[in-house]
Specification:
Belongs to the class-I aminoacyl-tRNA synthetase family. With about 600 residues, the chain is α/β, with parallel strands linked by helices. It is about 50% helix and about 10% strand. The strands form four sheets. The protein has a five-stranded parallel β-sheet with strand order 7-6-5-11-12, with helices on both faces. It has a four-stranded antiparallel β-sheet with strand order 1-2-4-3. The structure holds one RNA strand of 76 nucleotides.
RNA sequence: GGGCGUGUGGCCUAGCGGAGAGGGCAGGAGGUUCCUAACCUCCUGAUCGCGGGUUCGAAUCCCGUCACGCCCGCCA
């Protein structure tokens, strides 16, 4: 409803300004502060003061006088407050919001007929997913959810780097060493924990073994890389054996979040189908291509990038960026838009990729890159190769354990008589524990660096997932108490009068509910799921105020009012459930 | 050295040209015969890193500066 109101205000303002012969390029529409009784405001009068030859408050009054509120649907009144114009919502605004909110899919935007591929995580299949990279699946999954909710046709891809030197090293190590050569047992009974030990062993060997032994190993590693480059089937199968095993373990870990993918796209695919060779040929023909120091490179100064992009090694093999170019052209062929979520350390490569795609004749407007900073430990970086870091599995386990403790602790002094059984406790522990981890990460701007600390990541207090989840549980509690089967999706009748909702807390809550579609639209446009998190927090505040002041089921509440409030609770439930779902945080029906 | 990013009360964080800079944690004081207190109310606490500038108006834009992070491989 907010979007409709905003459109209406824009039209009205534009009309008023032009009939006063003012320029209409700057409507100055903005969000009023919380304590102002309006849903939208304009500060245009400030800037028109010179032209009007009058002080801003007078200009504001003249504009206000020019707007005929009777012609507007969602605006109930226009008032000035000094230089500001305030637009107050009409009764229709509230009632239509209430009606819209009772739809289970409330907040979602109808199909845009536009497909978008969201590539995220894409961690090299070298070992267990650690917390340093955990931001990628969490942000990536939220971005994908957000775009899907905003009406895009979304596919989620994990790009598997199965053609790089790292995988050649891994394959060599896996084939060379035996269980007996490894010092430690796997940290967990899953393939990637098992196999990563070979990878670490191999890397350690290359660093410490004597020169001739290392040279021999390097020769073997080079042979693997050459085999991949030539599309040799046997080499591909050797590497695949390692890649597929490790990847399946990582997949299991990511599913816990849950972060799931429509497709795991292998890098070797673009070597085997000839598209990388094709890219190389086309790159060599570019004016920016140079052959220096026996390697083919691309000069990208015209894009403000000093560093040359090497796209063909002196031994004739391609590099990761070369294959990624073919990969991206494939995405462009199959989707209208492409979004990639990647760590800030890939920023330069991201710019090079974009610039080169441009040189190859692609429309790079289709590509958006979301960058995030790594999560570091207080003592420094996490590394799979060195085995430093906190595994995501361990973080999730710890989160669930702590959440379970919380549930059990609260069991004794629960007022509500809803008989939580063992399954409920486990369900809540999972929803809350994992929700807290995801929310903690997704609620912050991705560009800010995070230092991982257990206590902070697993804080279940206010301004966390449980705080917002609790609101959802409260909504469900009320609806169930009123006789609705929440699990079956039962919902109160929407045919109620929003005029019954006259308390300031009710009005404020409705205003907040009304903004969800606009928040979704904005967040999707900016690819910033943290805006949704900020919204859930504000929503929870508003709901809690309503909960405190406006009893729904108490004896003294008249039937009409009770019905209206039940509808408001239903709209609240859909609002918070949908917002949480975008973030990938489960909305618990009880906790 | 160069490029990019970040700097908001003791700690974490929102806001990124407009209406006393919002929240949360920690600290202090309260609240449960009433739909779940993972909640709510009140208090204490900030020259928005620092210095200039643009503007009627700057946390927000520009310049400089400092601190921290990331990058500057024929690795990915």
């Amino acid at each position: 409803m907010f979007l409709s109101l905003r459109a209406e205000v824009e039209d009205a303002l534009e009309g008023a300004l032009s009939s006063l012969a003012f320029p209409t390029d700057d409507l100055g529409i903005e969000q009023p502060p919380e304590d102002v009784e309006s849903v939208l405001a304009s500060s245009a009068a400030f800037r028109l003061a010179d032209e009007a030859g009058a002080p801003p408050p007078q200009v504001a009054s003249r504009i206000a006088a020019e707007i005929d509120v009777d012609e507007l649907t969602y605006v109930g009144a226009v008032r000035t407050q000094g230089p500001y114009l305030n637009f107050l919502p009409s009764e229709a605004y509230f009632s239509e919001t209430l009606a819209a909110g009772t739809d289970e899919a409330y907040g979602s935007i109808d199909g845009r007929n536009e497909s978008v591929v969201v590539e995220h995580t894409s961690a090299n299949p070298t070992g267990p997913v650690h917390v340093g990279r955990a931001r990628n699946p969490i942000i990536g999954d939220a971005v994908a959810n957000l775009l899907a909710f905003a009406g895009y046709d979304v596919d989620r891809h994990y790009y598997v780097n199965d053609a790089g030197r790292q995988m050649a090293v891994f394959t060599w190590a896996y084939e060379t060493f035996d269980e007996a050569d490894l010092e430690d047992d796997p940290e967990r009974d899953r393939t990637e924990y098992d196999l990563v030990r070979y990878y670490r062993k191999g890397n350690a060997y290359l660093e410490t073994a004597d020169e001739s032994a290392v040279a021999e190993a390097e020769a073997e590693i080079d042979a693997i890389m050459q085999g991949l480059e030539e599309g040799d089937e046997q080499t591909y199968e050797r590497v695949s054996e390692v890649v597929d095993q490790v990847l399946s373990g990582m997949k299991t870990c990511l599913e816990r979040l849950p972060a799931e993918f429509d497709e795991f796209v292998k890098e070797t695919r673009f070597m085997r189908d000839g598209s990388t060779d094709d890219v190389v040929d086309r790159l060599e023909d570019l004016d920016e291509a140079v052959y220096e120091e026996e390697a083919w490179q691309l000069e990208l100064e015209e894009f403000g990038i000093e560093k040359n992009l090497v796209f063909l090694r002196s031994d004739g093999t391609s590099l990761y960026p070369t294959r990624d170019l073919a990969h991206h052209e494939w995405k462009f062929d199959n989707y209208d838009r492409a979004v990639t979520v990647l760590g800030e350390d890939h920023k330069l490569q991201a710019r090079q990729l974009r610039a080169t795609l441009d040189l190859l004749g692609n429309d790079t407007e289709q590509l958006r890159q979301v960058l995030y900073s790594y999560v570091n430990l207080p003592e420094g970086k996490m590394s799979t190769r060195r085995g430093t870091g906190v595994d995501l599995d361990d973080l999730l386990d710890e989160a669930i354990d702590r959440a379970r403790e919380e549930v059990e602790e609260r069991l004794d002094d629960r007022i509500r008589d809803d008989d939580l059984d063992e399954d409920d406790i486990e369900r809540i522990a999972h929803q809350v524990g994992i929700g807290a981890v995801r929310y903690d990460i997704v609620s912050k701007q991705p560009t800010k660096a995070i230092t991982f600390e257990w206590e902070q990541a697993l804080d279940f207090e206010a301004q966390s997932a449980p705080y917002v989840q609790y609101v959802h549980a409260r909504c469900c509690g009320i609806l169930e108490e009123a006789g609705f089967d929440v699990e079956a999706g039962e919902c109160p009748d929407v045919d109620v009068d929003a005029e019954r909702l006259e308390a300031p807390e009710e009005r404020a809550l409705l205003e907040t509910i009304a903004r969800l579609p606009a928040v979704v639209d904005e967040a999707a446009g900016d690819l910033e799921p943290h805006q949704i998190a900020t919204y859930t927090r504000e929503f929870a505040d508003r709901f809690n105020a309503f909960y405190r002041e406006c009893p729904v089921l108490a004896d003294g509440v008249e039937p009409d009012r009770r019905q209206a409030r039940l509808a408001l609770v239903a709209a609240s439930k859909h609002t918070v459930a949908n917002a949480l779902s975008i973030l990938g945080v489960a909305p618990p029906r009880s906790m």
